[in-house]
Amino acid sequence: MLDAMSMDQLRTFIAAADEGSFSAAGRKLRRAQSVVSQTLANLEQQVGFPLFERTGRYPQLTEAGKALLADARAAADSMDGFKARARTLAEGLEPELSVAVDVMYPITALTEAVRAFHEAFPFTPLRLYVEALGAVLQPVLDGRSRIGIIGSFPDVPGNCESEYLLNVPAIAVVSPSHPLAGLSGMIPRATAAGHVQLVLTDRSNLTEGRNFGVMSPLVWRLADLGAKHAFLRAGLGWGIMPQHMVEEDIARGTLVTIELEAHPTIGSSFSMHAIYRKDMPPGPAGRWFVGQLKQRSI
Known about the structure:
By secondary structure, this protein is α/β, with parallel strands linked by helices. Helices cover about 40% and strands about 20% of the residues.
């Protein structure tokens, strides 16, 4: 009986568990509720025990159903990976590689990887989008970019895979003329909150209603990291910057570092990952490019 189990049954099981009802699962799968119910009944007959308790208003997973759900997800993911890999092999070399890159990623390492890519794939056009936060992820989800390089946006959607690349050290800086520059030791959050904080804004709607690394109610939001850099040097506020971008300023004294009281969403580095949709993994050129990025460090 178990040998007759189908992937469609497992996907129906997962949908019913995720959506909380057979009717909602039917809407997600675009099939009638009666079809969902019959599919699950057949699956339960094959495994030999109930997967859902149906006595209440909404079906609830049984203990056995909960135990099998993770395995069903793993099997479905494995099949998705198989189909995506087969599709990639059938496509061959990408006609164009489109990559969305987090603005925090070290430009020197990116330039070296792009130079190597051009030498290895001289006839494959490369399209790069440099964005921040959710605007790096959005073109990957939309299918406009095959690969995203994310660091300032911490969430990885369930339909995406991610691969660690490197850590980018981050530090808080101000102009030497800024009031915070004259304070010694650790600066309390309440003190930092009394001054304008310069932060990057998100050109997508993925972070709507959410803040990352915001400590002050006095916030200026900038869509460009270069503008944030210039505003910091002009003494218009304080902010977190990738260390590699402000090292020369610190050496010249045009910016100084400040030590902030620890904050849950302000860390000492950005963890950079390559991300791509499970159903649209990188082709040969994209895999090669990700491999080059893994070799770069700062």
